[in-house]
Amino acid sequence: MRIAPPKQTAWKQPNKGWHSRGYLPHFDSVNEIQSLNFRLCDAVPMRLIEEWRRQLGWSRNLKQSDPRAVALRQRIETHEDAGYGQCFLRDSRIAALTEDALQYFDGTRYRLLAWCVMPNHVHSLIEMVEGHSLGGILHSWKSYTAKKANRILGRSGQFWDEDYYDRTIRDDDHLRIAIEYIEQNPVKARLVTNARQWKYSSARRRP
Fold first, then answer.
1. How far is CA 146 from CA 6, 127, 130, 157, 159, in A?
2. What is the pLDDT of residues 147-179, one digit of tens each?
């Protein structure tokens, strides 16, 4: 059964180019391919991120290629893959809900090239479509799934972390590496021995 679409209003936001809300740098532009990562609210405690930022000499205006931004992202990814937090996405109902949300507007508001729903975070690779912003896409995914997941789990309150990570794909080689990284994430986290074994991933659909 297909999920109901989120509200239309979240999608007609202008593309912002480079911007930041004080956490990670983002790049929002039409017709770009973007590798995205967003996580549950308790997957990486903010106190840890603030401490890492202090250690790295963080600045609000860093770009993705800055070594400090790269180092912060690596620390966050390592912590995510360790499986901290309540890991609500281990619940097959929540994982399926999230995967369905990623796929729902594939081909209309973006083109979904790869994805992987991990226990406490989500990877996706999308090609942007004109008229739809990166922030709007993330908002729609997170808002819809948070409401549904909280209802399924009988809980309330924040579900996803406010921020997300995005990386613009440079060329064909970078695209290949990004797809492999996303689909091999469960193997890297030692959850399976073969990427095709992970149920909520595009790896299962590769020929």
1. 12, 24, 26, 9, 6
2. 999 999 999 999 999 888 888 998 999 999 999
pLDDT in tens, 113-132: 999 999 999 999 999 998 88
Domains of the chain in start order, with CATH, are: 15-205 (3.30.70.1290)
Residues 124 and 111: beta-carbon distance below 8 Å: no
CA distance 40 to 91: 13
Strand order of the sheet with strand 110-117?
Answer: 110-117, 121-128, 33-39, 165-168
- Which among 185, 172, 135, 143 has a CA at the least distance from the CA of 13? 135
b/e code 84-116 from CB counts within 10 Å (16+ = b):
bbebbbeeeebbebbbbbbebbeeebbebbbbb
What is this structure's pTM? Answer: 0.82
**Is 82 within 8 Å of 169 (Cβ atoms)?**
no
Q: How far is CA 23 from the centre of its chain?
A: 15
Contacts of 177 (CB under 8 A, 6+ apart): none
Residue 13 scores a pLDDT above 50? no
Helix (H) or strand (E) segment spanning residue 137: helix 134-153
Residues of the chain with pLDDT > 70, as a percent, come to 85
Instruction: Kindly state the tokens that stand for 83.
Output: 């499986």
Under 8 Å between Cβ of 112 and 106: yes
Please state the φ and ψ torsions of residue 114, each to the nearest 5 degrees.
-165, 155
